[in-house]
Amino acid sequence: MTTPDGYRLISTDRTRAQEILHVVSFAFAFTVPQREADFVERIYPWDAARGVEVLDPSKGAPGRLAGSHSSFRFRLAVPGSRTVPCAGLSWVSVHPGHRRRGILRAMIEDHFARSLERGEPVSALYASETQIYQRFGYGLAARGAVMELARGTELRDVEGADDLIVEIDSASIERHGDTVRAVQSRLTRPGSIVEFGDEVLEDVFLDLESEREGADELRIAIVRDGDEPLAWALLNRKGKWEMSGPDGKVTVKVWASADVRATARLARVLVDVDLMSKTAIDHVALDHEILHLLKDPRAAREAVLDNLWVRILDVPAALEGRGWAADCDVSVRITDAQVPANAATWRVEARDGGAVVTRTDQPADLAMDIQELAAAYLGGTSIATLARAGLVTEHTAGAVAALSRAMTSDLAPVSNIGF
Ligand SMILES: CC(C)(COP(=O)(O)OP(=O)(O)OC[C@H]1O[C@@H](n2cnc3c(N)ncnc32)[C@H](O)[C@@H]1OP(=O)(O)O)[C@@H](O)C(=O)NCCC(=O)NCCS
After folding, report:
1. Both 386 and 352 in a single domain?
2. Which of 228, 209, 196, 153 minimizes the C-alpha distance to 416?
3. d(CA 141, CA 145)
4. Which residues are catalytic?
5. Do 319 and 300 reside in the same domain of the chain?
6. Is the domain of 270 the same as that of 325?
7. What is the best residue among 3, 68, 70, 99 to mutate for testing ligand 1's pocket, by most ligand atoms within 8 Å of CB?
8. Nearest-CA neighbor of 12 among 41, 43, 51, 40?
9. SS3 state of residue 108
10. Which of 95, 270, 78 is nearest to 193 (CA)?
11. What are the pocket residues of ligand 1 if the criterion is a CB atom closer than 6 Å to any ligand atom?
12. Domain CATH for 219
């Protein structure tokens, strides 16, 4: 591992929370008032927390933290209603006084090695700037939309939706954490975070007063069928008064639904909030059923953004962990600049929804970089599209089509939870 001269990699614990916040707030350009600064202790994933500190006085004060990162550990839904252990890289920060000296590169190598030691065959992240992580083999595996609906947007009827119960409350992990866990555990859309530790919940429910920008505190809407939770949404409202009257906005920060009746019920509630003229909903899958429930498809103003970036750390474990939509038998040569064990030709024999992936010395039918395999991993980007873009090379006629069909997903991937 190449740590830049004058620095060393370390594990960080709670005693360094305020130092980490110092680095993170410098890197991400924000300031948290002292009264709220203890939030890091709650939401930081301490079991995977790492940093780089100064060793050599020529680089700064010895012992001072120059960079930090950690990863949320969860199970990620992948095609075929399966899940794999995933390292959700987050909080990646290098203090501006130490930037462009190779500290990020050292932290990424360290992250890959430690994730593999923990048995996590894939890593995922949300990118602050999209060009940073591609050089490390992260591929754009899911796109998502943020959409805005006007108050009173009409939805098609869904049988049984009106029978469901809706509960609206101030958001609280104690009261609602189990509900969120229960709904998440039922999600099969690739990219969903289905099982997770307490830090993920703390992160999802984080509601710093200093970040509200005039909106009210975080609220939750839950849809139930009797006692059974089917959907949830965390939202806030920001009031605004114009000469013509109220013109407030609802912002749905995170939401999930495990049932179309609940989607319809929840959507009706979200687009009919008193004094609010519009509702913004984030993390919408590009093929989500909610889009098909709109009576007027043009009612949604949408912006499509990159959602989840995925890095395959262990090719056979990652590929065998997902489901396969069609049978295939192809050999794929993978290049990987950071994880040498992946750089090989892999025979992918997919049959009856599963796959066996083994190293082979036979000539490859296809060739691609690990970034492209990662982009296709959740089934949202096809191998055929990547080949058309010149990012996948076909050596045997028909191999692109075969692998493409096998890796596709019925549902477009998206992660509803940011981290
Ligand atoms: C992005 C950040 C972590 C980079 O840290 P760093 O220690 O300066 O990065 P390194 O010196 O290790 O650079 C590693 C490589 O990434 C490239 N890189 C770094 N920041 C980049 C950026 N913003 N855009 C594109 N490439 C970038 C470097 O050029 C270098 O490329 P090379 O090795 O091919 O020459 C740091 O600038 C930072 O904290 N930024 C603000 C917070 C942020 O965006 N964090 C990422 C969270 S998703």
Report:
1. yes
2. 196
3. 14
4. 133, 419
5. no
6. no
7. 99
8. 51
9. helix
10. 78
11. 27-28, 92-94, 99-105, 127-129, 131-132, 135
12. 3.40.630.30
Within 10 Å of residue 381's Cβ, how many Cβ atoms?
Answer: 25
- The predicted pLDDT at position 2 comes to 84
The pLDDT assigned to 181 comes to 98
Domain boundary pick from 125, 160, 183: 125
Does 419 map to a domain?
no
The protein residue with its alpha carbon nearest to ligand 1, atom 23, reads: 132
**Residues of the domain holding 114:** 7-125
For the chain, the C-alpha Rg in angstroms (whole number) is: 23
Q: Are residues 282 and 341 in the same domain?
A: no
Q: What separation in Å is there between the alpha carbon of 92 and the centre of ligand 1?
A: 9
* Residue 62 within any structural domain of the chain: yes
Name the nearest CA neighbour of 141 among 369, 417, 413: 413
- The alpha carbon of 44 and the centre of ligand 1 are apart by a number of angstroms equal to 21
Which of 251, 245, 257 lies closest to 279, judged by CA?
Answer: 251
213 and 268 inside one domain: yes
- Is residue 135 domain-resident? no
d(CA 237, CA 351): 49
Give how many domains the chain has, as a whole number: 3
Q: Are residues 258 and 181 in the same domain?
A: yes
Model confidence over 273-331: pLDDT tens digits? 999 999 999 999 999 999 999 999 999 999 999 999 999 999 999 999 999 999 999 99
Write out residues in the chain with pLDDT < 70, as ranges: 1
